[in-house]
Amino acid sequence: MQHLSQSHADKAESGKNSLSGLPKNLAKVTRKSLRLTEHNITQRLDSPKIHPTSLIHPFAKISSSVQIGPFCFIGPNVSIDSHIIISGHTKIGSNCTIHPHSVLGGPSQAIADSDSSFLTIGDYCTIREHVTINLGTEATSIGNNCLIMANVHVAHDCHVGDNVILVNGVLLAGHVEVGKGAIISGEYAFLGAKTVASRDVLPFSMVKGYRGRTVGVNVVGLRRRGWGEEERIKRVEKGVVRGGK
């Protein structure tokens, strides 16, 4: 656009351009039309591409390079940064922040998918750079107050609970369920770096290693929730011994 603006400016200032032979009043109108045309082109290029069937809250902030497909909903006080694609019946709750180069609501990588699938992202979520969250055969959901760090992939039909943190590079395969307050697994559970969990992780537990071995209780996580020692014991007993009942 800089070259286009300079070109028009040169033509306006030069007495030897193609408008110089026109009557004075007509030349003024023509130059004004050129400026309006340039303004309209610039405005279109600097505006996000939003499908007319999508609903965007007036208090949402959307960068110019964002693409929003059909039947999406963007809630109030949502901030969507540059080069983000949102599609596929995606609903984003209030006060969320989406960082650059993420793709939300893209088609499933599974062989079977469904046109009726949708993605729901709760309130107060932060999604960092290069995150992909896919649709599925039914629904994919992210709870409230979640932090999804850079380069995370959430596959089709996953359900992530409230207050979950997915650290850099986490990959969730299809149909994975992540409990509230967890890092990848059961409620208030903790997985160490490079841990491989091939089966369910107990609530309130700490799991480490290639084989995903349980090494203890996530005491720090329980304490951070503001629970006293007696309450922590009761919660662990309920989650581990009685299966959460």
Automatic annotation (TrEMBL):
Name of the protein in question: Trimeric LpxA-like protein
- Species the sequence originates in: Podospora fimiseda
Give the keywords, sorted. Answer: Acyltransferase, Lipid A biosynthesis, Lipid biosynthesis, Lipid metabolism, Transferase
Pfam short name (any one)? Hexapep
Biological process according to GO: lipid A biosynthetic process
Please give the GO cellular component terms listed in this UniProt entry: membrane
Stored InterPro entries: Acetyltransf_C (IPR029098), Hexapep (IPR001451), Lipid_A_LpxA (IPR010137), Trimer_LpxA-like_sf (IPR011004)
- UniProt keyword Methyltransferase, yes or no: no
Please indicate if the UniProt record lists Acyltransferase as a keyword: yes
Q: Name one GO molecular function term.
A: acyl-[acyl-carrier-protein]-UDP-N-acetylglucosamine O-acyltransferase activity
Superkingdom: Eukaryota
Q: Where is the UDP N-acetylglucosamine O-acyltransferase C-terminal domain?
A: 200-235
Region Disordered, as annotated, extends over 1-22
